[in-house]
Write a structure and sequence with these properties.
This protein has no helices and ten strands. The protein has about 130 residues and is mainly β.
Length: about 130
């Protein structure tokens, strides 16, 4: 089955930490950029962090310095370490493949860009 599964969400008090995981399965022959998004009730989904195929990372200004994205290629898992959490971090967090992809086999295209997980809820209380 081709899927992304997020885990690690939960409820935490302000100032606490959580580590989110995004485990990918069924993504063969291709490497993908991986991106974290979040969406709070009544708000649009927003970019949080991304990691490129070459390992380059990026962060939204609101989480820079507090969140760290990393990847374990052997486990096909992308992590988001979230420290010094704030109530405004409360949201459903999603991981997604892309935007970039790279085939590891000449002539074989990548078919699973823009694949989304179902999300994991993060709730930060004051």
């Amino acid at each position: 089955q081709v899927q992304l599964v997020e885990s690690g969400g939960g409820s935490v008090q302000a100032g606490g930490s959580l580590r989110l995981s995004c485990a990918a399965s069924g993504l063969t022959y291709c490497s993908y950029d991986m991106t974290w998004y979040r969406q709070a009730p009544g708000k649009e989904r927003e970019f949080v962090s991304g990691i490129d195929i070459d390992g380059s990372t990026s962060y939204s200004d609101s989480v820079k310095g507090r969140f760290t994205i990393s990847q374990d290629s052997a486990k096909n898992t992308t992590y988001l370490q979230m420290n010094t959490l704030k109530p405004e971090d409360t949201a459903m967090y999603y991981c997604k493949t892309g935007p970039g992809s790279r085939s590891r086999l000449s002539g074989v295209k990548c078919f699973f860009n823009n694949l989304w997980g179902q999300g994991t809820q993060v709730t930060v209380s004051s």
